Amino acid sequence: MVENRPWLNALTHLLLIFGIIVVIFPIYIALVTSTHEAEDILTTVQPWFGSEMLENYGTVLQKGKVSASGIPVGMMMWNSLIMALGIVVGKITISILSAFAIVYFRFPLRNLCFWTIFLTLMLPVEVRILPTYAVVANLGLLNSYAGLTLPLIASATATFLFRQFFMTVPEELAEAARVDGAGPMKFFFDILLPLSRTNLAALFVILFIYGWNQYLWPLIVTTDESMTTIVMGIQRMLYVADAIPEWNITMATAILAMLPPLLVVIVMQRQFVKGLVETEK
Amino acid sequence: MEKRCTFNNMWLPYFLVAPQIIITFIFFLWPASQALYQSFLIEDAFGLSSEFVWFENFEELFSDPLYLDSFYTTVLFSVSTTFLSLSLSLLFAVMADRVIKGEMAYKSILLWPYAVAPAVAGVLWMFMFNTGNGILALTLQSLGYEWNHVLRGGQAMVLVIIAAAWKQISYNFIFFLAGLQSIPKSMLEASAIDGAGPVKRFWTIVFPLISPTTFFLIVVNVVYAFFETFGIIHAVTQGGPYKSTEILVYKVYNDGFVGLDLGGSSAQSVILMIIVVSLTVFQFRYIERRVQY
After folding, report:
1. Which value, in Å, is the radius of gyration of the alpha carbons in chain B?
2. Which residue segments constitute the domains of chain B, with CATH numbers given?
């Protein structure tokens, strides 16, 4: 840095350590709580891990919380995974295709299509829940994976990201492809798609987290308990009249709910930061 | 910017945009227009007939003290969340920008909360503030302060603000850090030579230079607090106690799905749409260009 001041360097590290404590502490407490018996955390705080870890997680994965209808959390995670991957694959597919059409073709309704897509940027699910629910119900998609994913896969941000990226692809590539007699789809699959790899990875991270963490939408389109996703499943565990509140079970579920997206962020950190910064332009 | 070299094909481009356009129509434009239409209707108690009433639903909303309270709650909630989260992340970003050793370790851990769903973040903080066995509630109790967010509205509000701000730290941190790293080092060195200390340098050079990032983040955070925090409210307080944390999005859900007031809920949706659209337009038109020093 500009100058060397030992006390300032110490303060810097101190504040950053404070930041890390703020971030990790809630997760640590949840993790510790999930390794104890329910009785041990009724009136006291356990500062260190208990011995019930395997037992608790085994119960949670196979039986869930018995007093809250007992849906196995393993099943909830499976539902969440399918929903998240459905959203990732669906969003990427439809937006890369439409970006390709908008950038590489001239057709009469091109501008109209562009603005229609742009509009979706302004309409998050939360503001149109009731009528969207009605549409999904009329199509008979309640309690289905299609109902969970389809309404969430139209996205302007992914389309814009691909559009911007395609704009930076050198003209010569398309020209060369045309001279060599490649059709548009051959150009798309053999040149554009391989070039988009890093963007695809970045979008994968962002969209996976987005899909996995959905809450309001699964809450209203799934009434069948076998379709519960894990993030909404936790909520159902909170408000049950137990003899002993099983915080250990609830916290184990919370840990399992954050584990997959957290792993994705940790393992794919570079792509994650890239995706976050680029989808917001 | 347009491509010079394009492909010629009559039907292929339509085929390519079709999936996205169809989905947008079925799940976005059609429901949004339905919300608009229903907001002008009043249904009878059995849902058998409905009557076109123009702006009556809106007039009713704005003369309803509960709705106005919810508006006030939302503004309080989003302003506090935005302020808390932005100031903490700016502090961490400035520090992470300074630090030379262990930079990566700090950075990667500060990214974690982004992966945690709002509802889960809410549950984590709720447990720590749980009366009787939550670590923070017990600490406060030993300091002589009674914490019970199930009964006290103010405390419930503080709890959801903390949870919402915590979740957003990573996002703001990444953008602030990117903004800080784009400031030319020569500028800071020049002012250091002129005798400006670290604090003065921050307020006279760094802070003005990252103001575009700050304004961008303010809009994003307000949108986040308005809409994406539904999970936190629903899981932690359910809008209570006594509606003290009932933000607008929660009220749309509650009136529509629990209260089954179709017209009222649609009118609220329309108002929310107007808010998002104006925030988005504001962000596109003004923030990226005008705020440059």
Report:
1. 24
2. 68-290 (1.10.3720.10)
